[in-house]
C-alpha cells in the first residue's frame, strides 16, 4: 500500500453530523496538508425510530477502510468523542490498513451512570425505566439520535479501554484532551494511553478546556507530528 498518501477518515461523535462545524473545519485543515479527507457517513443517523448502536458506526467505518484498501491506500483515522470508539475497534480488526490515529476528546473508560448524569440528567429516570430518549445534539437543526439504556451499556461494554488491560495498537497515536473535560475525565484518557502498546503516543492536554476542542494551533502541531511519524 502507498504509505505516502493516506486517506484521512473522520468519525464524528454523538449529536454531531458530517456537516457539523468541526467536521468542516477538519476537512479544510487536512486538505491544506495535501491529504484526502472523508467523513464517514453513518447509515442510520437521523432515521426516525432507529435506536443508536455503536456497532453500526463500526461497520460503516469498516466499509470505508475496505474501500481504501481496494485502492491500495492506507487510512489515517481521525475521531472525535464517541467516534473514537469505532476507530479503536476498527484498528484492532484492520491493523495492516491503518497507519495512524488522531483522537480528540476520546470517549474512553466511561460508565453508564456518570455519562447520563453529566450529559442528560433529565432523562435518568426514563433511561433506567427502559425508555427511548433523544441524545442531545450539537445544533437545533441536527436530527436527534434515539438512545436507551441497552445501547449505552453496549457502548460501555465494548469500549476497548474498559475491557483490555493492554491494547494491541502499534501505529502512531496522537490524542488531544481538555484538562477540564466533565464528560470524559482526563484520568480516563491517561489510563487509556498507558494501556496502548504503541511506542509512539503523544497526549496533548489543553489546559482550561472542556470536551469540545477547537481545531487550533495545538491540534495543527499534533497532526503534523503524526504525519512526521508515518
TrEMBL record:
One of its GO terms (molecular function) is hydrolase activity, hydrolyzing O-glycosyl compounds. It comes from the Eukaryota. Keywords: Hydrolase. This is Serine aminopeptidase S33 domain-containing protein. It comes from Brugia malayi.
Amino acid at each position: 500500500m502507498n504509505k505516502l498518501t493516506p486517506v484521512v477518515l473522520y468519525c464524528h461523535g454523538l449529536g454531531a453530523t458530517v456537516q457539523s462545524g468541526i467536521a468542516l473545519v477538519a476537512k479544510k485543515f487536512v486538505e491544506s496538508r495535501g491529504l484526502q479527507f472523508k467523513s464517514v457517513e453513518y447509515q442510520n443517523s437521523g432515521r426516525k425510530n432507529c435506536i443508536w448502536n455503536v456497532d453500526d458506526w463500526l461497520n460503516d467505518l469498516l466499509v470505508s477502510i475496505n474501500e481504501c484498501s481496494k485502492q491500495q491506500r492506507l487510512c489515517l483515522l481521525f475521531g472525535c468523542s464517541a467516534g473514537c470508539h469505532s476507530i479503536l475497534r476498527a484498528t484492532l480488526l484492520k491493523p495492516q490498513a491503518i497507519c495512524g490515529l488522531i483522537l480528540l476528546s476520546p470517549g474512553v473508560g466511561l460508565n453508564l451512570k456518570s455519562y447520563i448524569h453529566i450529559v442528560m440528567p433529565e432523562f435518568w429516570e426514563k433511561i433506567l425505566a427502559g425508555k427511548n430518549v433523544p441524545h442531545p445534539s450539537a445544533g437545533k437543526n441536527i436530527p436527534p439520535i434515539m438512545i436507551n439504556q441497552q445501547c449505552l451499556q453496549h457502548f460501555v461494554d465494548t469500549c476497548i479501554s474498559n475491557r483490555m488491560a493492554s491494547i494491541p495498537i502499534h501505529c502512531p497515536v496522537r490524542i488531544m484532551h481538555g484538562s477540564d473535560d466533565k464528560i470524559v475525565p482526563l484520568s480516563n484518557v491517561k489510563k487509556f494511553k498507558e494501556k496502548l502498546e504503541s511506542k509512539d503516543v503523544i497526549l496533548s492536554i489543553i489546559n482550561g478546556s472542556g470536551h469540545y476542542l477547537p481545531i487550533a494551533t495545538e491540534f495543527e502541531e499534533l497532526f503534523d507530528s503524526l504525519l512526521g511519524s508515518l
